[in-house]
Design goal:
Rossmann fold, ProC C-terminal domain-like fold, 53% helix, 2 domains
């Protein structure tokens, strides 16, 4: 057994699919620990050969993918099972909390985001006191199967939470606003929806694939005195940059509060 994933929810399954799709592991090298009978049945049917059960496996590297309130209990169970390496993707649960329950384990904490579900995630990882470069390499290989990974100190993870952890919701909210605005200007709802989705996808793809500075890409679309300039002038008047800064700051502060509780 190469890996066990404790928690068979959406994020747990996303990482399972990632390591299988990239060939990092085969189905018979991975186990999922999941208490819900129905969910275990679904996973077993979807991934033939996968070991699915309710108890942790002894000595097998583990991902903790449960709700934050259950992390200390799960970490203690893994420690009791002799698990030496733990990757936690639970939001707001500090390394110190995990290490207090599993003091002899190498702990890596991660802040992923929901686009990991479609292989386009952005994750940051931080090493615990017992974790070494090999442990970070291990965690990065797993998370790299579902997107981009950066290595940071744990002190930076609250900022990551506010930016990329919560960031998809900000983009979805922008999409809602664009769709509503298109409808208000006379477009059919289905047309406004399709155009907004493709516009966001296209803009993000252009930004990633060209590597250009977002400001340069914005300028490339903006002709002096043109339609885009008229729209951007409204953003400037409303202080969009300041608003986004306040949005991210609020999420960062809340992440800090949750981590301290």
């Amino acid at each position: 057994m190469k890996l066990q994933i404790v928690g068979g929810g959406k994020m747990g399954e996303a990482l399972l699919g990632g390591v299988l799709n990239t060939g990092w592991a085969t189905a018979d090298e991975v186990a999922v620990v999941e208490p819900a009978d129905g969910r275990r049945d679904e996973l077993a049917a979807t991934y033939p050969g996968l070991a699915v059960g309710t108890e942790p496996h002894t000595g097998t590297d583990a991902i903790i993918a449960v709700k934050p309130q259950y992390v200390p209990e799960v970490a203690a169970q893994l420690a009791a099972a002799g698990v030496g390496r733990i990757l936690s993707i639970a939001a707001g649960v500090t390394i110190a909390t995990i290490e207090s329950a599993a003091p002899s384990s190498a702990v890596v904490r991660c802040m992923p985001n929901t686009p990991s579900l479609v292989g386009a995630g952005a994750s940051a990882i931080a090493a615990g006191s017992q974790a070494h470069v090999a442990d970070l390499d291990w965690a990065e290989a797993i998370l790299g199967s579902v997107g981009t990974v950066v290595r940071l100190d744990e002190s930076a993870l609250d900022a990551v939470t506010g930016l990329s952890g919560s960031g998809p919701a900000y983009v979805f909210h922008l999409a809602e606003a664009l769709i509503d605005a298109g409808i208000a200007e006379g477009l059919e709802p289905a047309v406004a929806d399709a155009l907004a989705r493709q516009t966001i996808l296209g803009a993000a793809t252009l930004m990633v694939e060209t590597g250009e500075d977002p400001g340069v890409l914005r300028e490339n679309v903006t002709s002096p005195g043109g339609t885009t300039a008229a729209g951007l002038a409204v953003f400037a008047e409303a202080d969009l940059l300041g608003l986004v800064g306040r949005v991210v700051h609020a999420a960062v502060e809340r992440s800090r509060e949750l981590g301290a509780s």
